[in-house]
């Protein structure tokens, strides 16, 4: 949009420059070419002017041309220049009533000053217009202020309307730029959340499995081998998730069957079981009613909650409840709380990410330690009941 505005500004400057050149050429023709009006005695006899006045008029005509040529690039200067030239010509033998050029240049410069000038431009244009014509009227002994006022309103009024439209367009451009910047910030936050959820979950499980393999490496080689195989499986899953995220960032849409879903959470519950814990899961309602965006966010929230349970309370029993009721998805994750000293009330990045995801849907999050020990996360995500999720094969929750 800014590029288009720059192009329009350049073309406007070119157009006003050409208009200034054309006005200069016409003014010089009026000075040096014997036009019919002068020959028939209807205008001043330029040939009878005293020496030097023709040169003065030539300079004034050049000033009018410069004022018109610069009325958009230097609007206030152009309005002042046109007013000064108009006033100066009032004290020459050829008053600015001389056809076309002086009044046309003054009107064009004042119109451009009001339309595209800065904060003080309308005042400059009004002073230049009425001041120059007032002095000319006083010198010529003319008092046709009705005509002057009418022409002024007919020119400055539309100029002010153009000014208001330009100001509105500038506000819209600024608003669009702010929205674009906000959208970029939101996109960066969304990518950061996705990376955190993918990497944090995968690395946590890999660390737990590596520790388990190290613990039984000498006593149970078979179990150690199984743990190392699990590390490889989780690593492959993380790479797949990162590739899917990269595809989305490149502008391609991920296939619905490739997106995370609450109907495929065996890998998440396995992380807790691999840490020596148990998972008890229940599903209430039809998961097919959940829109895809809510389904993916619910999966990520559950992933973070289970990752925290595996990291901070290894060996505990984790109860997972997924409920679809009406127009809301409710998630409840609670563990029986081993090692409570390592728990926190939600100051970490994981719970912050959960809250940010819930806020995108206008949802609520309640998370914190329980009085009897353990940790609880409750999340509610509203959604449009008429929307539908992409068709995925359900697998349920295993414990």
Largest sheet geometry: 5 strands, mixed
The spatial strand order of the largest sheet comes to: 1-2-3-5-4
Query: Helix- and strand-based class?
Result: alpha+beta
Q: What does the radius of gyration come to? A: 39 Å
- What percent of residues adopt helix (DSSP H or I)? 55-70%
Q: What fraction of residues sit in β-strands?
A: 5-15%
What is the number of strand segments? 5
What general form does the structure show? rod-shaped
Whole-number tally of structural domains = 2
Average of the residue pLDDT scores: 79
User: What is the number of helical segments per DSSP (H or I, 4+ residues)?
Assistant: 11
Short characterization:
With 399 residues, the chain is an alpha+beta fold. The chain has two domains: 2-143, no CATH class; 262-399, Heat Shock Protein 90. It has eleven helices and five strands, in the order H-H-H-H-H-H-H-H-H-E-H-E-E-H-E-E.
Structural account:
Its EC number is 2.7.13.3. This is histidine kinase. By secondary structure, the chain is of the alpha+beta class. Helices cover 61% and strands 10% of the residues. It contains 11 helices and 5 strands. The longest helix has 71 residues. The C terminus is likely disordered.
